[in-house]
Write a structure and sequence with these properties.
Layout (H helix, E strand, L loop, with lengths): L10 E3 L7 H11 L5 E8 L7 H9 L5 E9 L3 H11 L6 E5 L3 H12 L9 H15 L4 E4 L9 H12 L7 E6 L2 E2 L2 E2 L2 H18 L3 H7 L9 E4 L1 H5 L8 H12 L5 E7 L17 H19 L6 H28 L6 H24 L10 H7 L3 H14 L1
Parallel strand pairs: 1-10, 2-3, 2-5, 3-4, 6-10
Antiparallel strand pairs: 5-9, 6-9, 7-8
């Protein structure tokens, strides 16, 4: 059972009473009459064969308040796309599968590239960006939820709690972030959030001083969660990163565009487990190593745009401060895990801290060498300014693929 403590500049919506999924869905069906809802599912074709995706599909079949489901499908051949259409045909809701590797959407992507507007690298950021563009093109929904497709502990209550703060017309939120306890199989997970983001934010406060952006990020209980919901107004002017800084980048963008009283977070699950990334200590282009570097760069870039001046000496101080603070957190988490009967390998925790400390320096060096690097995908506002008919052609391309 959670507490009701409000610990930051954004509103936290707790799970205080374990209200039933049926009661939440009853409200959502009523809200849908004035505020239609959509779900975005960015996925790889390979995820269709996992344990998680069939379970997610079986739960979504029971959800009757959604206007549409938009599935972004990556890394699929034509035969695999047809299989995906068959797989998702079990959904009773209106749904569209975006074949991102198909000739029609690739042609649109090439046109955007010619204008310097297309995402520059593949990945979840690109997939999400095109899904959000399709939401705009279809013009059917006002409240939109997005969650990953590798959630092993998925239950439809997660979706109901995630979209509720945006779907409720009596609430005034524009963006909502999901959070949960990262525990599964008797272990404490969430290393990047626990061992990098939290101690890094506190270290930055010590080194660069008090900053409203750092206070803002620290308000989120799980800033790296891949689950969030938002009002359609958010889509038009948001710029999202195409790298592993996606979640931090989105949080930065909604702070730039909206007052903090329009932002919230909600407890969406008692337990959560999904596909785990390798630490990849010997390859900075893979796994949690790359993720940690991209997250650090995203935070450093945002602070720099707000006037913080960095130097090699600054990053060395940040690294030293972080290292000591992160090791203290390992002890905190060990005690928390033991009291709750969970496993926590202190050796592996400290190995992760050592890697993250090195990567803070690598991210800082990269930032200083490339201060103008901007891995953001252009907003859909800018795209429609350059290509006013892009939405009509985008929607027609998706429909043509589906009808084949």
């Amino acid at each position: 059972m959670t507490d009701f403590y409000q610990n930051g500049v954004i509103t936290t919506l707790h799970n205080l009473s374990n209200r039933s999924t049926e009661a939440l869905e009853s409200d959502l069906r009523r809200f849908a009459k004035s505020r239609p809802m959509a779900l975005v599912l960015p996925c790889l074709y390979s995820e269709l064969a996992t344990e998680a995706m069939p379970n997610i599909l079986s739960h979504l079949q029971k959800v009757d308040y959604l206007e549409e489901i938009v599935i972004g499908l990556d890394r699929a051949t034509e035969d695999q796309y047809h299989h995906a259409l068959e797989f998702f045909s079990a959904l009773p809701q209106r749904h569209r599968v975006l074949w991102n590797d198909g000739p029609r959407l690739q042609a649109l992507d090439a046109e955007l590239k010619a204008e310097g507007l297309a995402p520059r690298e593949p990945g979840k950021g690109r997939n999400v960006w095109y899904c959000l563009g399709y939401i705009q093109a279809s013009n059917r929904s006002q409240a939109i939820a997005l969650h990953d497709c590798d959630i092993l502990t998925y239950d439809r209550s997660l979706l109901a709690r995630l979209i509720y703060p945006i779907a409720n017309p009596a609430f005034n939120y524009k963006f909502c972030k999901g959070y949960y306890a990262r525990t599964a199989d008797g272990k404490m997970n969430g290393r990047v959030s626990r061992l990098l983001v939290t101690p890094l934010l506190r270290s930055l406060k010590k080194v660069v001083g008090a900053h409203d952006y750092l206070d803002y990020l620290a308000s989120y209980r799980y800033p790296l969660a891949g689950e969030f919901s938002f009002h359609r107004d958010v889509i038009t002017d948001i710029r999202i990163p195409s790298d592993w800084g996606l979640e931090i980048g989105i949080l930065s963008e909604v702070k730039r565009n909206f007052a903090t009283n329009k932002l919230c977070q909600v407890d969406i699950a008692d337990a959560y487990d999904h596909k785990h990334q390798d630490l990849s200590p010997d390859d900075a282009s893979q796994g949690l190593s790359k993720m940690s570097i991209d997250i650090c760069k995203a935070i450093f870039r945002k602070l720099a745009t707000n006037g913080t001046v960095f130097s090699p000496e600054t990053f060395r101080t940040i690294k030293a401060t972080y290292f000591r603070m992160a090791l203290d957190f390992v002890e905190t988490y060990r005690n928390d895990a033991e009291m709750n009967g969970l496993k926590l390998d202190v050796h592996k925790e400290e190995q992760a801290v050592e890697l993250f400390a090195r990567n803070i320096m690598d991210a800082g060096s990269h930032f200083l060498a490339n201060p103008m690097e901007a891995p953001f995908i252009n907003s859909w506002n800018r795209v429609t300014s350059a290509l006013p008919d892009i939405f009509e052609r985008f929607e027609a391309a998706v429909e043509a693929d589906m009808q084949r």
